[in-house]
Design goal:
globular; alpha+beta; 6-stranded antiparallel β-sheet; disordered N terminus
Amino acid sequence: MWSHRSARLAAVAACAAALTWGSLSPATAAGDSSRVPPRAWITIKGHGYGHGHGMSQYGAEGAARRGLNFRQIAAFYYRGTRWGTAGGRMRVRISADISDDLVVKARAGLRVRHSGTRKILELPRNGASRWRITVDRTGGDRVSYLTDRWHDWRGVRGPAGFTASGAPVALVTPSGTRTYRGRLMAVAPSRGSRARNTINVVSLEGYLKGVVPLEMPASWSKAAVRAQAVAARTYAAYERAHRSGPICDTTSCQVYGGRAAEHRDSNAAILATRELVLTHRGVPAFTQFSSSSGGWTSAGSMPYLKARKDPYDGWAGNPVHTWRIRVKDTLFESRWPSIGNLRRIAVRQRDGNGQWGGRIRSIAIIGGRGRVVVSGDTLRSALGLRSTWLTFGVTRRG
């Protein structure tokens, strides 16, 4: 998500080394505006990592360390939601499989399933090392197997897929082999298309097992990981209800790594919260989350995604509660070349929450040839910043 995301927390910690703040001219000292000399260092000091909507993952861990249970953590970050349940299945597009054929490793119990007729065909034990589904000349699906070479087995009515009676199935992709629970299907992206996308059809609980340890370290406090399981389950149920097709397996949805990503501690958290979701007006809530709130959550698009002071985010183990980086003025000039030589950075609007007046909503970047006004989100994306809650300091460089 957004992302929500956020969750590659080990990588976050690795890139969070502090830089010296030094003698700076803070933007707030000149009405949230900083003059920039012709050759300058711009030091950016900020709070948090991510959009700040909903649950802070570092905050969840901080809350757990202070004795809150997962229900209390969820209630703090999603105030106004209620508890409910959700089950069913997820359909996940596997982005690593960029080819049009669906190839899996042979294993005991491997079958082909027709989705339309729900007919299941047992695959013979014939010494094959791999099985695949491809598209024939008429646009139909054909199953073949690999021994010394590929051999045609038979045609099947699509969309078709492989299953192994509840056991994981190993998917062969151009970048390597990945194992998934549930069923792997070859699905046309649109009616009449000869292309095929690989879709993993898996139970909601099985899906979570491949998500939660990639969104939060499974070794964190039980209450924090359980809160993450609830947030991820609810987010998945919300996305499923608001999409016409499968969800993705990247940070644009939730990172999903299949069976290979699973961890026993996160699996235990998923089991302990089985089927529990947060609801609003009787349906799953939009439970966004991000790595760190920096001490204030930000208002989101839903009434339960409120801006509020977060007393749990700033524990000693959070490397991105406060952060600093230093860049050259030329970085701004390269991102917005129409301005010419950078002369001033002027924050126009903030959200009003926390130090410096909170997260930037609008900012003017002014140069010798012109100016641009961009949102805080655009600034963050263009400069590769951790969040929009930041301020600027300027020093000359030789």
